[in-house]
Write a structure and sequence with these properties.
heterodimer; A: mainly beta; four-stranded antiparallel β-sheet; 12 strands; 52% strand; globular; B: 114 residues; 11 strands
Chain lengths: 115, 114
């Protein structure tokens, strides 16, 4: 069975600083996708970044980037130049193409950005 | 239009009431989902509709009844709920039931059962 683990329930960072959220996963799938979703107080889950396991290059979206370590089954999210609007719950998620019929979510990390 | 619209945003209902949650998307997505989310927890999948047919029911109690009248609309009918059913109910959609394309979520319905 696939599992996703986020070991940091809460984190805080000062505005303009950099913060890294960790995520590890366990799977026997060979073809899979990893995601980071953001859920601000407005409640809507928003896709931040997506990584396909076959791609060795780490995904980047503006201030958000990932460190994908396939052998270690690690998928961390780095937020650069943190902004107050980054305050949210962040969920790491996994989907495997062959044996996973749904998104598997981690337990989430609550990120607070302070001015 | 990249929106998934859910109505109502808030709902308070008694244990004997019947109510419905509505979800709409106009992105041409053929997979739609209902999730239940308790406070400070990740979303839990309830149902998946794929090409307007129910493809996954995660052993959800029968007091929750999903319906997909057409490819743009998803309903969740509620009847005889319990206080522990109070939660945020999220709807999502994706182009296909495979997550190699982006899934879009609505803002959810905050349900309180009294």
């Amino acid at each position: 069975a696939q599992t996703v683990t986020q070991s940091q329930p809460e984190m805080s960072v000062q505005e303009a600083e950099t913060v890294t959220l960790s995520c590890t996963y366990d799977t026997s799938e060979s073809n899979y996708y990893l995601f980071w979703y953001k859920q601000p107080p407005s409640r809507q889950m928003i896709l931040v970044i997506r990584q396909e396991a076959y791609k060795q290059q780490n995904a980047t979206e503006n201030r958000f980037s990932v460190n994908f370590q396939k052998a270690a089954k690690s998928f961390s999210l780095k937020i650069s130049d943190s902004q107050l609007g980054d305050t949210a719950m962040y969920f790491c998620a996994f989907w495997g193409r062959y044996n996973t019929d749904k998104l598997i979510f981690g337990t989430g990390t609550r990120l607070q950005v302070f001015p | 239009d990249t929106e998934v619209t859910q109505t109502p945003k808030h709902l308070v209902m008694g244990m004997t009431n019947k109510k419905s949650l509505k979800c709409e998307q106009h992105m041409g997505h053929r997979a739609m989902y209902w999730y239940k989310q308790k406070a400070k927890k990740p979303p839990e999948l309830m149902f998946v509709y794929s090409y307007e047919k129910l493809s996954i029911n995660e052993s959800v109690p029968s007091r929750f009844s999903p319906e997909c009248p057409n490819s743009s609309l998803l309903n969740l009918h509620l009847h005889a709920l319990q206080p522990e059913d109070s939660a945020l109910y999220l709807c999502a959609s994706s182009l296909t039931p495979e997550f190699d394309t982006e899934a879009f979520f609505g803002q959810g319905t905050r349900l309180t059962v009294v």
